[in-house]
Amino acid sequence: MSEKKSVIIVDDHPAVREGLKSIIRENGNLEVIAETGNGEQGLLLIGKYKPDLVLLDLSLQNANGIELTRRISKDMPGTKVLILSVHSKVDYIKEAFLAGARGYIIKESAPDKLMEGIEKVLEGSYFMDSYVSHEVIEGILMGDTRVSQAKTDAYGSLSNREQQVLRFLAEGMQTKEIAEKLFISTKTVENHRSHIMKKLEIKSMVELIRYAAKIGLIDIDLWKG
Description:
Elements: E1 5-10, H1 14-25, E2 30-36, H2 39-49, E3 53-57, H3 65-75, E4 80-85, H4 90-99, E5 103-106, H5 110-122, E6 127-128, H6 130-141, H7 145-156, H8 160-170, H9 175-182, H10 186-200, H11 205-214
Parallel strand pairs: 1-2, 1-3, 3-4, 4-5, 5-6
Helix pairs in contact: 1-5, 2-3, 3-4, 4-6, 4-7, 8-10, 8-11, 9-10
């Protein structure tokens, strides 16, 4: 990489952002031009600066990294997305690549893998942590991608508000809690839930939670509902 490449970091953990910046500073060919912990703010910054690369957390507090990846890839094709995530499950990784990500690094591997991943992605290649790549490729070759694409397409059919409600429901929040958090009525939350389940063809909360975990909206291992 002979020319200095621009990078934007979107991760809701300040300590993680500082760690990433520290690693990147050691490479004179890269420059972090902006950072944020907010998904929507991230989209605005990316649209404004059109960086060469976005380092994106898969699970943000106020947004879904899969959907952000899809929007960046669609609206700003010149910007490459490298996912940094605590999720190492094959389904999450496949969803990220189907959404348009060019690389995927497990956060605990970032200190060792970050610069290699950035270089590969900026060169136009795909990059994955070596210990998960075989499983991912094997899953794709087995034909799972069509099912995954159908799942993410269905999620994309939800409105922004419905996506918010879906996440909160999947995290185990009650109707009243969601209504208070979003400053809407409980009836409106119930209507959103009904529309979500109809659009996703889901008939129970158990199915909804499994769906949310499949597309990387929540980590089913950490769910305490």
